[in-house]
From TrEMBL:
PANTHER family: MONOOXYGENASE, PUTATIVE (AFU_ORTHOLOGUE AFUA_6G14510)-RELATED. Pfam families: FAD_binding_3. It comes from the Bacteria. GO terms for molecular function: FAD binding; monooxygenase activity. It comes from Actinoplanes xinjiangensis. This is 2-polyprenyl-6-methoxyphenol hydroxylase-like FAD-dependent oxidoreductase. Keywords: Monooxygenase, Oxidoreductase. Residues 6-341 form the FAD-binding domain.
Amino acid sequence: MPAVRNVLVVGGGAAGAAVAILLAEGGVSVDLVDLKPDVAALGSGITLQGNALRVLRQLGVWAQVRAEGYEFDTLGLRAPDPAGTLIAELTDIRTGGEDLPATLGMYRPALARILVERAVSAGAKMRFNTRPVSLDGTTVTFDDGSAATYDLVVGADGLRSWTRRQLGIDVEPQPVGMGIWRTFTKRPASVTRTDLFYGGPAYIAGYCPTGVDTLYAYLVEDVQDRSGLSPDEALATMRELAGAYHGPWDEIRENLTDPARVNYTAFSSHVIDGPWNRGGVVLIGDAAHSCPPTLAQGAAQALEDASVLAELLLREDVLTDALWQEFTARRLDRAKTVVEASLQLTRWQLAHERGDVPGLMARVAHLVASPA
């Protein structure tokens, strides 16, 4: 018998939907709430490493993800010169196992839709447009006036987690000093994997194929307040910055025509350096830790949180300190290592230092190749 009978999951993103799927399949009654009207409404692209794909297979959605995404096993490094010269082609480690690709890119809203639909089919009760307004132990009151008491509340509600604040955990994401332009557009035939350009006016200019006809492209710069730009001005700014990069970027830039597909975000990072639970309330995913996307491990770490938490809850008969100690032991150091490595890459770039980037990436890849 599971350690919990009824669970509230706050947040329908990757971590929340994943833990809802696994618990519901294990016979737990799960309420999954999200404040947005549609969890698949916003986003551009996402890069999923093999360890993320391993959990998606566990969730029973790998076939759908594979059909809608674009898989590849190499990483290209290019020069910011007039030809976009290919400097190196690196074979990525298949961190999910040899039977899964090293990397898969896909449209982020498509992944969100697949996960939420899977959670509902597994038996989770999904409520959009729903916001918790008070938390007393594990009794939660919602903005429609309803209330319920749960055996466990899982806060998977992202960077600005309401649940984290309710627990009195005074840890908030801190700025890193970089900002990223992202867009989702057509995929030129020449783009068959992620290529990264280091140098030029941006720290990183990259792209990732997300489907047969689509990709997302990104440019990382010193963080700036871009909030005053109109959509047309944001598009023009990204096109201008992209003008320094060539090779496949020349075709990508020509396809940058839709202002609605361009967004700008400042990098931030945090980690709760200690247990992520307070009594019967636990934080996972971006509510507990976040990092710049320099290693493309954000979603992977969130999915691993969900997998480990569900495993322990379904294995044990009751919530105990020992369960939470095991959860902390299996997740905290691993997440901290990924966060620190991601931050180290940004520090090297901000300081214009070369650093041992291949060595750092290899160490993280070997770490996450072992299941959490």
